[in-house]
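Write out the bound-state structure for nicotinamide-adenine-dinucleotide.
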Amino acid sequence: MSLLITGGTGYIGSHTVVELQALADDQDIVIVDDLSNSSTKVLDRIKKITGKTVTFIKADICDYDAMNAVFEQHDIDAVIHFAGHKAVGESSEKPLSYYYNNVSGTVILLRVMAEHKVKNLVFSSSATVYGDNVSPLNEKMTTSATNPYGQTKLMIEHILFDLAKSDSDWSIACLRYFNPIGAHNSGLIGENPNGIPNNLLPYVAQVAVGRLAQLQVFGDDYDTVDGTGVRDYIHVVDLAQGHVKALQNLNKISGCKAINLGTGNGTSVLEIVNTFKEISGQDIPYKIVPRRAGDLAAVYANADLANELLGWQATRNLHTMISDTWRWQSENPQGF
Ligand code: NAD
Ligand code: WQD
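---
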């Protein structure tokens, strides 16, 4: 039996592959990725960490024939679906590209899965589907989205709920990630954004390593501990282990279940900057600028359901998250 990982050479996918390969059951892993936001160098790094190889297929999930061939050639029994575009700003500039890639691509994947009677799925959703609900955010809250990227996640969630309602053979874990940061503690894999990073941690890391001159802190007049935005940062290895747990507990899920993967704790932008400075020993120049449109003051999870249902909770603290980010960034200043 094989496990299909779409988007498996990406940031979260690669860390999940490493955790899956650490399992004793030795299930074969097939990665499908079109390399639109990743590199095949990741495959060598995964092999260095685990000593094991994976099957890699360069394909676009929007290509029905290519996806069908994957299922014809491999005995897939479950899928973890990471593939998608994820840049919020870019999604407003290129909405069609986001709806096509993320939503149409997922529909094609689901169609091929259904045709091959593969009905076990773990999906990468996002806390962005909570819209402007007040934190702590729990899975019973209403959902909404404020940008095309978020809409794609919400639309896919609706598709998954409808699909599971129509056919009770489906077991789907819709994992709503909070803010993944950090890297594998080997320093061999980590987040490698194209161009100027959109997210806080890769931006801070690139300032620390000298690739960028100065961080802009988007607002210091929020009602938070120090006025800067608060988020629920979660170590990517904890997140990866959450996927392993979700996969192992899919049989407990009948239908489609939304589950938060977060720590339940909030950290401000300045707390991140100061901790990064302390751990890296580097100066991190920053300037306070106006709030970024669409940002909320504080976003963090109620992470109880993941614990109840999957027996999972995050274990790595902020110090580990930032030490591991720094090791990855300082040992790979230009990424892969
Ligand atoms: P990433 O860009 O590093 O990984 C995504 C991978 O999917 C990349 O390797 C890319 O090449 C591939 N891909 C994109 N479109 C594809 C297509 N049509 N066919 C095949 N491969 C394709 O991103 P990530 O941070 O690892 O995110 C993984 C998933 O988690 C995404 O769906 C993202 O929306 C979701 N997510 C990410 C975050 C975050 O902050 N990183 C938060 C919540 C949810
Ligand atoms: C974190 C905090 C910023 C950059 C985004 C997506 C969300 C999800 C995760 C995928 C905020 C502040 C940031 C900078 C700053 N992705 N900041 N200067 O906004 O919580 O979520 O990524 O699903 O959909 O919207 O994360 O890392 O962009 O920002 O001051 O240069 O850092 O204002 O308070 P966010 P982020």
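---
The chain has a mean pLDDT of 97.
The pocket of nicotinamide-adenine-dinucleotide (ligand 1) is lined by residues 6-7, 9-13, 32-38, 60-62, 82-86, 101, 105, 124, 126, 177, 179-180 (CB under 6 Å).
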